[in-house]
């Protein structure tokens, strides 16, 4: 008997590869492709890349980044000889030049002067013409060169500059001139006369000329404030030490060894610290608290705070002591005396046993301090910041990342939001350990868990055991949204690079520099 069953022909599917082109493939072939390795699958070719924008295409042949670099490098190589010749031409006197003051022709074969700070080719025929353009202390830090026919080159000229207050020329209390060393805006060394009044301190008079003194009483060495501004931002943004900055100034300006030693020894003391604090006062005058986050809720809403410790920001015990408190006080860094004793010196065995309970973490215990050198009096920094990356509170750690530091910051946060409708969310690498520790303490400490929500940052949670991942992951907890909680890791990436500078500082200078760095980081976040 002949069977009447006939297999049906598989249906055909159309796959668009390119406009106007169709490829027929059966459903069976499409189904088999699902079980093939990615490199064995029959996939359509990718669409052609979009054309480059016109402003990127530097030439018809520059179709890629490598091509554009080759074109630009070739252009620079072709211009090398002409650029070198133009540089040498600018170093030599030109023909048919006129004096900037009297407009008479300058005899280039005889002695004359030029000022490259006035213009590229600013020539003067005599000292009187120089004084006419630079009269009454105008442009006091312009460097003048005198042409030496015997040496066939320009040499630095001695101007004999006098700085006088234009609004106080006839002081009733008397005036006198003082010889002052100045490092100008570019770090060049000058020796000038400054007329000071007897009615105010010399450092105040010099400040009116935008000169910052190395000492308050009887100053003889000053720095232009624009130079100190450059030093401050090179330190905060590029993390360059004062020694590195001063060495760069030395080799750029050709300072002698004695001039370099004068620059570094006078700037490395209290003078630069006080200048940075002055700039902080200028920035915060008439403004709100610079350390607070403008985006975090103040009266109602959800406040997210991340906690973490960093063991790279150490300080050597042999780096000296500070006779005074930091200029910033407790703007960012809380005194360790408020934490040690009440919070840190808790039951050590409790901290260790709870840490071992979850993936054998050493964070939050005193075990980690054993791995640090005994010569360190500060083994690290424990800190907090909001989810917008604005720094909040920091503490110097002396005994490892004990859970007491996190409990202290929790108490500060609860005092901050108490009496408001702000819901506090705290993210910590070992939030599971912290919660067990707080419950074991009992009393008022355990009641704080009713007012806060604890979670583990999203990238750290995968190092925990499965039960912790379920109970503390921000992806499972309500109210966290897409908050990752890793703001402190981003902050450490910025702050950790100061460690090679601050580890040799005195305690107060170290805290002031780290506070300035944190305030600078906050200003960057607010942009």
Provide tags for this entry:
527 residues, alpha/beta, six-stranded mixed beta sheet, five-stranded mixed beta sheet
Describe the 3D structure.
Helix 6 packs antiparallel against helix 7 and helix 9 (348-357) packs across helix 11. A hairpin with a 5-residue loop joins strand 8 and strand 9. A six-stranded mixed sheet has the order 14-17-16-12-18-19, with helices on both faces. Strands 7-9-8-11-10 form a five-stranded mixed sheet. The termini are far apart. The protein contains 16 helices and 19 strands. The longest helix has 27 residues, at 65-91. By secondary structure, it is of the alpha/beta class. The model is unreliable at 9-24, 56-62 and 346-356 (pLDDT under 50).
Terminal-residue CA separation: 86 Å
Helix content: 25-40%
Total E-strand runs:
19
Number of helices: 16
Tell me the count of domains. Answer: 3
Share of residues in strands: 15-25%
Radius of gyration: 34 Å
Q: Biggest sheet, strands in spatial order?
A: 14-17-16-12-18-19
Give the averaged pLDDT, no decimals.
82
